[in-house]
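Colleagues,

For the teaching module next term, I've prepared a clean inverse folding example: a structure given as tokens, and then the sequence designed for it. I'd like students to try predicting residues themselves before seeing the answer, so please don't circulate the second half yet.
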């Protein structure tokens, strides 16, 4: 299986796969403080773009740009000569998992004696009886 995959990676048609795997390897060798801020990276017109999660990481990457360029030369990513960084302005929506609503089957048949003296309370009990009988 590995032999087949390595053979496929050598084909020119799969150059993007090779580039993306090289970018992943480059990201893996970055220090942890830089690696945490990377959302993803891509190559466009001989420039490797890092999409970052926060503006603080952009300042940190600009400060370490020389180190990243030297790592880039060692990673030997095809036709990449420069690096650029920017922060995405899209806010990620973190969806809270919806808790399942539990429905219970009604065990009552609505047969009870309404002994309420107050007229409003008597009507409320009768509304409850109606709801029970309809369900």
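(Answer key — instructors only)
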């Amino acid at each position: 299986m590995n032999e087949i995959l390595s053979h496929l990676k050598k084909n020119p048609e799969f150059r993007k796969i090779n580039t993306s795997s090289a970018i992943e390897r480059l990201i893996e060798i970055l220090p942890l403080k830089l690696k945490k801020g990377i959302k993803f990276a891509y190559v466009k017109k001989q420039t490797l773009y890092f999409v970052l999660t926060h503006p603080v990481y952009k300042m940190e990457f600009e400060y370490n740009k020389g180190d990243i360029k030297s790592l880039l030369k060692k990673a030997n990513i095809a036709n990449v000569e420069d690096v650029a960084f920017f922060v995405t302005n899209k806010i990620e929506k973190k969806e809270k998992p919806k808790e399942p609503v539990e429905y219970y089957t009604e065990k009552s048949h609505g047969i009870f004696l309404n002994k309420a003296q107050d007229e409003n309370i008597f009507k409320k009990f009768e509304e409850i009886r109606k709801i029970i009988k309809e369900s």
